User: Fold these one by one.
Assistant:
Number 1:
Amino acid sequence: MNKQEIIDILSDNTNNDWLFSEADKIRHENVGDEVHLRGLIEFSNICKRQCKYCGLRSANKQVQRYRIFKDEIINSVQKAVKLGYKTIVLQSGEDDFYDTDKIVEIIREIKFFDVALTLSIGEKTYDEYKAFKDAGADRYLLRIETTDKNLYKNLHPGVNIENRFRCLYDLKSLGYETGTGCLVGLPNQTIESLADDILFFKELDADMVGIGPFIAHSQTPLKDAKNGDFWLALKVMALTRINIPNINIPATTAMETLNPNGRIIALKSGANVVMPNVTSIEYRAKYEIYPNKICLNEQPEQCRNCIEAKIKSIGRTISNKKGVREK
Ligand code: 5AD
Ligand code: FES
């Protein structure tokens, strides 16, 4: 689709059912009915950045900060592997405590297990990304958040969008399966810019795209902003599936935060991945990127069983493979 076609669909809600079923059909034809589960470990909520929408921004002094060290991370990985996860995602704030050597050591230990490893630890230099790749990291998640240059600038004090683009192209060139994505419903975000976001995912040749609604956090400068709209986020996701048919698309946790059946609705509208949390529950509530995150009191095994039951209830199956993007 060209930009105008995407804009037209995003601005008109009369054909939403058609859009969601079309995305579902394209998902079925291109990536099949298997759902890939990625076990997410949120290993540090310490962040040096100031993203205005994010509860973990360093200016938020109300957060109880934590770091999970290597041995405990490996324990969680071991548990996740026992629960059948074939991909581990390590996510954190931008926390310089974990320097290149520490991350490399963690990667090496995780790669003793037969799992794909995804990192989601922010903007780094080419050399750092290369060191992680050489150590065995397979994938990297770094949402562009928005491709609107002015909006990006207003929301991210002290950093620039060019570096974020640079990171994403470095990751692609290093051979990572590269995930990106955007927030939907940010204050002052336009439909045009959402269309640009989708076109950017295609231009980058992103291997995975995660899309979630913005959710206002009371301890951030955007505390009085309106939440993003679940259905608009779902439309951006469905359009992403239609425009890049063979990628991996998660049903995001933020969608389920705004709609109690959000992940299942997303799985029926183009998504083929779910990322259940495998972090120990003692840390979960502290990783409050946005409020009312789901599963704060559920143990990793409970989430595993819960999501399996939900996926089976819609006639889909859980993959026992690593879920690499197949071109
Ligand atoms: N609402 C929804 N999603 C958010 N993220 C950060 N803050 C919020 C918020 N307030 C998302 C960003 C980031 C991901 C880890 O969480 O898109 O990339
Ligand atoms: Fe955690 Fe359902 S996925 S309880």
Number 2:
Amino acid sequence: MPRPFIVGNWKMHKTLSEARDLAITVRDGLSTSSDIDVALAPPFTVIGSLHEVLKGSSVSLAAQTMHEAAKGAFTGEISPLMLKDVGCTYVILGHSERRHIFGETDQAVMKKARAALDHALIPILCVGETLQERETSRTFDVVDRQTEHALRHVTPEEASRSVLAYEPVWAIGTGRTASPEQAQEVHTFLRKAVARSHGDSVARVIRILYGGSVKPDNAASLIAEPDVDGALVGGACLDAPSFLAIVAACRP
Ligand code: 13P
């Protein structure tokens, strides 16, 4: 069984002083036991500062997106080299807000996943269907296509270190969580897809997180599902007590 992994995706929230306060409270609120992995994905502007705050702690840093090139004339973009330089361990790729608001394609996620691994960043690869796709029975087709692209140029060894995140678009920021059974159904499907593309041993260890309205009161029942290895938390990670309560609920 993979170790549980809880990631707080801060999205476009927190000024520098607010970010430092939140990160310090999270850092100090976590016990030092190493039975669970925790990462924070703050906005780019505060990553460097939080690296100082979190140095020597058990909390890792993730970025929320990146460009695939190491450098170049790409105004407004951030490269994997830069993320590594300021202390990121992980990078979230293909989040549904990137896909649906900013037009990020499966091809782009494929290139970014390769680039992240080339720069020793661990990709957190997001997949998930819209409400309309679910209602027209296309959930499995959609997550299969997104996962296949994201992992297409990733070796089995790299895939075993990578992270998948199932985030049904209809559950993000809506307060409408997937039921534990709905999450488990898709997670099992994803694990089988990884087994087909990268082998059984990779499928056993790759971490598959659930995201979409995870809160302190539903986290335990989601993580209790055999194929749910952790959570990608949005709104509830902006408040330290609620994020810490989610981490506590997910401890093995
Ligand atoms: P919410 O927890 O606010 O639904 O957001 C989930 C998410 O998008 C995490 O990446």
